[in-house]
């Protein structure tokens, strides 16, 4: 279980994360959503202890997580937004370094590394230096590296950023598989459809503050499960309805309108987007 | 042991860049030896100037070798590649990471110093280098590797590493008992420069090479520097808010 208690990160006068309280249950697939600069990456960086909180704390299975907490860190693996690895290492070396940092025996490192690189379709590139890999390959390598140590908790910061549609779907399937194995997953993403498809619960954050936490279905129901999109000139406006009949009644009276199911993106736009527009 | 993981990483880098590292380690010191030792042939205290210069160049190479091995690598890892994140989140205790960097950096410094000794062998100077010289070279390397760690934690950009070399390492190379004795400096400045780690190292290695033994006060001074820089780097890696 991951607990964030009053987690705060300040840079001078700027507050990147503002008193975040969250509990992520063991085995849960949890999404952290927010616009650019909402504090998602800062939160992940505090979970990976690269950044230390200004106030508040993080607990992993009830124990405080800090830079000395080796036993708690052993449970974590992080896939950062940036390709955080030695650019002059080959894929094999990246995997070996990870294994060594986690005290894995050499034989196990070799076997696990071969197995994961093959699984990711990277085995024929294992002697290639990271610098010479494509973005997608680097991303896959980071996943292999994170899985090398069989983590209990996987932290993913924008794992599909820059990926094509096919690679994104492959990644989704992989994450579902991992979740099926009981791994707790905390995912930050810009792609709201990704969160809706994968996450059991999501938290919306804005300006470092928690807006709401719930399941995607509850959030959608809260707004209204049916959306009518109305085009007026260059602008598209959506209206939300709890009952289908109500939506159809509105639709028949409106011009240039269409009916569809409400998505998590609508919730995001309504809750966060409106606030940004008002500012 | 996390130390072994770091040493493995350093060994991998050394093996891969062996020729580049070797060339970089010998080229500047070799130029100093050729220009000041062989080109401008002179004497110092009745001895060939080369006998004064070689121990200084060995000390200097140990310093630059260990400093650059850590400063450049760590700055790039921390600020450009973000590869330090991999270490931070791993269960490897961070003091072991520091220790691995220091030992690895010092061994690189010793390699640079050793290369100079090897290159000057044919000159037959009669200078003595023994186990104590090796120990002092290693200690000197650890001092500058920890200094490099401290500075790389302070760096705001990965281009800061060459700046630190220009501000700290280059002045020390020329002033700290390498090319001329600190005794020739004016009062006040002399005491300050003589207390710097490279001055102490050069003094001890030079004294051993002349068969005179060495003053153990130099070892104490190097250990004090090592303790201070180690403490600062450990505090940084555990307590610095934004790494």
Structural description of this entry:
- The complex is a heterodimer of chains A (279) and B (243).
- Chain A is 38% helix and 29% strand.
- Chain A is of the alpha/beta class and 279 residues long.
- In chain A, a hairpin with a 2-residue loop joins strand 1 (2-11) and strand 2 (14-24).
- In chain A, helix 3 (91-101) crosses helix 4 and helix 3 packs parallel to helix 5.
- The longest helix of chain A is centred in the middle third of the chain and has 16 residues, at 165-180.
- Chain A is globular and about 70 Å long.
- The model of chain A has no long low-confidence stretch (mean pLDDT 90).
- Chain B has one domain (2-241).
- Helices cover 76% and strands 2% of the residues of chain B.
- In chain B, strands 1-2 form a two-stranded antiparallel sheet.
- In chain B, a hairpin with a 2-residue loop joins strand 1 and strand 2 (47-48).
- Chain B starts with a helix and ends with a helix.
- The mean pLDDT of chain B is 91.
- Chain A binds chain B through residues 11, 45, 48-52, 54, 67-68, 70-71, 73-74, 76-78, 80, 82-89, 93, 96-98, 100-103, 145, and chain B through 1-2, 4-5, 8-9, 12-13, 16, 77, 81-94, 237-243.
Count of discrete domains of chain B: 1
SSE topology string of chain B: HHEEHHHHHHHH
- Major beta sheet, strand line-up of chain A: 6-7-8-3-9-10
CATH class of the largest domain in chain A: Alpha Beta
Termini separation of chain B comes to 23 Å
- Please give the largest β-sheet of chain A: 6 strands, mixed
What is the strand and helix layout of this fold?
The complex is a heterodimer of chains A (279) and B (243).
Chain A: E1 2-11, E2 14-24, E3 29-33, H1 40-47, E4 55-60, E5 63-64, H2 70-73, E6 76-79, H3 91-101, H4 106-119, H5 135-148, E7 153-157, H6 165-180, E8 184-189, H7 192-198, E9 201-206, E10 209-214, H8 216-223, E11 226-232, E12 235-241, H9 244-253, E13 257-261, H10 264-278
Parallel strand pairs in A: 3-8, 3-9, 6-7, 7-8
Antiparallel strand pairs in A: 1-2, 1-4, 4-5, 9-10, 11-12, 11-13
Helix pairs in contact in A: 3-4, 3-5, 4-5
Chain B: H1 2-16, H2 18-39, E1 43-44, E2 47-48, H3 49-80, H4 84-89, H5 94-120, H6 131-154, H7 160-175, H8 189-194, H9 197-209, H10 217-239
Antiparallel strand pairs in B: 1-2
